[in-house]
Amino acid sequence: MTRHLPVLLLSLTLGLCCPPASAADPSASLAALQRMRVASQQSLTDFYLFSGMEGDRRYAQALDDSTKAASTALDQLGELPGDGSRALVDPLRQAWQDYASHLTTLVQTYRSQGFTDPQPVTDTVSRQRRLRQQADALYLKIEQDAAWQVPPLTQRARDLGLFMADIATAYAARNASVGGGASGKGSDLLDRQVDEFDKRLHALAQATENTDATRQALQRVETTWRYLQPTLRNHDENSAPMVVNSYAGQIVEGLETLAGQYAAMAK
């Protein structure tokens, strides 16, 4: 098993063990949607790793795993609480199918040609962004229709998990042959993302609602972050996409565990 798979394995494990959300259970629908967002973001990271490592079979498998995890999570949304949220599901499914189809085409092109042109990669990245926007819109609409919101600390942990997945994608894009230009994420933006993540993680650790259990979970995340942060900051001097993806996956997994702890506290 490669070192860069923790977040994918988490997504797959959650997807396989979690049944579809039941009616009048917005928390389960939102949890499934969070898994879908993380896994779909990871799929783009996996493509960059696949391309950057010259089509290595391990990264092809990782890409297959992350796309399956996203698809499984999308199928587990369950019964949604209102007409508004239900109306957004089919467009989201179509956006996912469109993105996944383009991703598959990129992989097939790389296997047949040994490279991919920048424009198709740019198009696929654009589709992934639209997918994310639609998933985010559905997330908010489910809360609105249900007249219920995810507990604040749970949401902050989820947001940080997604942000970490974004950072891993940005780093992987910089180190892929077509990554930097297609993603539009330059050095300055990556530096700002690292600063922002550090600030938000520190703020979460300072929340007065934390318990001994959540502090321990946060400490594990912070320890991994301390290992990862120098590599992210030295991106122009030392390229280590596999290391970054591995540590990022551990952080995403740790934050998802923390989000579950916060959710249990709010019941």
What best-fitting shape do the alpha-carbon axes yield?
globular
Radius of gyration: 18 Å
The major β-sheet equals: none
What separation lies between the terminal Cα atoms? 37 Å
Low-confidence stretches: 1-7, 11-16, 179-185
Order of SSEs: HHHHHHHHHH
Organism: Pseudomonas mangiferae
Protein name: F0F1-type ATP synthase subunit beta
Keywords: Signal
Topology of this protein?
Blueprint: H1 6-17, H2 26-52, H3 57-75, H4 83-113, H5 118-146, H6 152-174, H7 179-183, H8 187-205, H9 212-233, H10 241-266
Helix pairs in contact: 1-2, 1-3, 1-10, 2-3, 2-4, 2-5, 2-6, 3-4, 4-5, 6-8, 6-10, 8-9, 9-10
Q: What can you tell me about this protein's structure?
A:
- The chain is mostly helical.
- It has one domain (about 5-265).
- Helices cover about 80% and strands about 0% of the residues.
- The protein contains ten helices and no strands.
- Helix 8 (about 185-205) packs antiparallel against helix 9.
- The N and C termini lie far apart (about 35 Å).
- The model is unreliable at about 1-5, about 10-15 and about 180-185 (pLDDT under 50).
In short:
This is F0F1-type ATP synthase subunit beta. With 267 residues, this protein is mainly alpha-helical.
Q: Main attributes?
A:
disordered N terminus; 267 residues; mainly alpha; single chain
